[in-house]
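Example record

One chain of 458 residues, shown exactly as stored in the release files.
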Amino acid sequence: MQKHYDVIIIGAGPGGIYSAYELTKCAPQLKVAVIEQGHALEARRCPIDGEKIKTCIKCKTCSIMSGFGGAGAFSDGKYNITNDFGGTLYEHIGKQKALELMKYVDSINMSYGGAGARIFSTAGTRFKKLCLENKLTLLDASVRHLGTDLNYVVLKNLFALLKESVDFLFDTPVEDVEERDGYLVHTKDAVFSCDKLIISVGRSGSAWMEGLCKRLGITTHSNRVDLGVRVELPAVVFSHLTDELYESKIVYRTEKYEDNVRTFCMNPNGIVVNENTNGIVTVNGHSYESPDMHTDNTNFALLVSKHFTEPFNDSNLYGESIARISNMLGGGVIVQRFGDLVRGRRSTVKRIEEGLVRPTLAATPGDLSLVLPKRILDGIIEMIYALDKIAPGTANDDTLLYGVEVKFYNMEVALNDRLMSEGHEGLYVIGDGSGITHSLSHASASGVFVAREIAKVL
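Predicted structure tokens for this chain:
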């Protein structure tokens, strides 16, 4: 069976959602379909309950990573409005346009359930000087924090709006794409045709995207992988920073190797969670807007970027290999006290229980020095001591380190200034699946941009 659409969007993550939204606004006469391998929003449920099921059971389709809302559906709901991090969208469309689109996405979020969520900014903050005095750099950004709970409300309201004019096909993995008088999209049970195709498969679709690029002859470039740990400590240690900035993106250049270590995804009063990428269990963090769901802990990632060229150029495979060692030794995520790490001993259940920080994730006590390469671990330890100077207590013995945290980035797809693949007219690649965006705000903005480009010609 075959059905024709003006536009097909593969993937219902932020890029796909905001593409569909903008198409319904700018060109409501167009027939639009969104094909998603995961579940509808209300059907997304992770089986881990902390009691009967404590660790990842590797579901056929991961409800945390796939489905309406993408991997961002159950994230912390942070929309960073900046060109300083979160992707390189501005290299294709310009810095001013990128910022305008991020602000536009923010206005949509406010209109569909996010009103009242606070926006934080590093502009004029006293912490910039404090960081510089201690060999740290605080990056500039404005961040709207929806929280996991409000983020869900926004997504629910957007779906209620979009389903009236857009065809959604959930639990429908796309098997292949064929270029023929437009494009044919093959699923297990059907073939769909379209004039314009938007691919927005996110990080979880990295392997699929790489295969498609090879089949269609689309040029790609090796991208980086970020490796590190998630730190969990009492919320009061970082409260002076998080109360004013919420998300503080801090970079430290190590003395030993001159590597950059950065904080990422800070979650005040949040929880540490599992994340499943292509069957590999890694660690992440969430926090909620509602005070009723706050914890006594704050968590954030410490990451080191690695980019390989030759003779080995598969950065993601390197990251996967490290994560698999953690899964092999710990059955999933490993947790270790900072004091145990610097003393060269593994953490045990007894040592964790006797510590002053109550873990929010059921992870296996162990030794991260058996997992992470020495260069990366040395950099993380240096960074913790550096952060201790601006947030005393960071380097306490009982600070918890969960590993590993890996941020996979898709191979960067060669795109023009319309985010369209050269030589493939009408084929647009957006969001984190393109390798040029790495955040909710950039991915959403890329979706709006492409929708407007399509509306000009259809």
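Notes: The first strand starts at residue 2 and ends at 10.
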